[in-house]
Amino acid sequence: MTQTTTTLSGQECWGLLRRHELGRLAFHLAGEVHITPVNYAVDGETILFRTAEGNKLLGVVMDSDVAFEIDGIDAQEAWSVVVRGSARVLEGQEAYRAESIPLRPWVGSDKHTVVEISADEVTGRRFALDKPWEHIGRG
Amino acid sequence: MTQTTTTLSGQECWGLLRRHELGRLAFHLAGEVHITPVNYAVDGETILFRTAEGNKLLGVVMDSDVAFEIDGIDAQEAWSVVVRGSARVLEGQEAYRAESIPLRPWVGSDKHTVVEISADEVTGRRFALDKPWEHIGRG
User: Fold this and answer.
1) Which of A9, A91, A101 is nearest to A47 (CA)?
2) Closest among A88, A89, A31 to A64, alpha carbons compared
3) Which residues of B touch A27 (CB under 8 A)?
4) Mind listing the pLDDT tens digit for each residue in B69-84?
5) Can you give the pLDDT at residue A137?
6) Which is an annotated Pfam family here (chains A, B) (predicted)?
7) Do B108 and A1 touch (CB under 8 A)?
8) What CATH number is given for B5-128 in this structure?
9) Do B24 and A71 touch (CB under 8 A)?
10) Which of A22, A33, A109 sits opposite B26 (nearest CB)?
11) pLDDT of residue B107
């Protein structure tokens, strides 16, 4: 069998993380696992996102253990980057870190709280696709 | 402020789930939350995916509580559908359910085990995007 999966280096993973801005956050909430899309930006080797009061914020305040994922696909290949780490709300002056990076809210709602994910582990894979049929496009 | 977020009906959520095939599974593993992309298909109102031995399978065998997400974005809007539910490995004859739906492996590796997510809750949102600048495309 041909090798169809390639492991990405840490540098490649951070490169992909820096070039994208929509990811998915998985977090604990009351013993359950939850997942939600988030608009994010990279600051150094941390991931920042904004949130309003709600499940996302409550989840990471109660249990900082989180996972974060981005992925992409085209006709020939798919790739994904997964970050495992811990999340914390940035307080006071620290929250201003979000002002100097391209972390802007997409939706016109008030999302004042900035959350940082610090990475314990970053892994990425690239998959050559075996596709005898046409896949449906995203969107 | 204009209303920029719309809640999708259950029917709209299942319609989107049926039209797509790449989602992200969040699951528990040894007390941590993990996330991974999965190629899936809808069968009735359940989600099926294939997996090989590994973290994904171990996770859902140890703790069936899972969350699953799909999303999409274009110039004007973004949307997401989140399924919360429980996962189980389909055994024996049940696994043949995967043969009658378009659930094919994208990558040429052996993924013999079929996992079913039965939904406890399906929620979806559509967001009109506030974008004074150009967002980077996916890929």
Assistant:
1) A101
2) A88
3) 33
4) 999 988 788 899 999 9
5) 46
6) Pyridox_ox_2
7) yes
8) 2.30.110.10
9) yes
10) A33
11) 63
Query: Residue B12: its pLDDT value, please?
Result: 97
- State the average pLDDT over residues A45-61: 84
Cα B127 from chain centroid (whole Å): 19
Q: Which of B5, B22, B82 sits opposite A107 (nearest CB)?
A: B5
Helices (H) then strands (E): counts for chain A: 2, 7
Residue B50 · residue B39 · CB < 8 Å: yes
- Which pLDDT does position B109 carry in this prediction? 60
**Residues B14 and A129: beta-carbon distance below 8 Å:** no
What is the tens place of the pLDDT at every residue in B1-36?
Answer: 345 789 999 999 999 999 999 999 999 999 999 999
Cα separation of A47 and A42, whole Å? 5
Instruction: Give the list of residues 6+ apart from residue B32 with CB closer than 8 angstroms, or none.
Output: A65, A67, A84
- Give A-chain residues touching B117 at CB under 8 angstroms: none
Partner-chain contact A34 B84, CB within 8 Å: yes
Burial call A69-83: b when 16+ CB within 10 Å, e when fewer: bbbbbeeeebbbbbb
Here the tokens at position B59 are 């996770």
Domain boundaries, chain A: 5-128
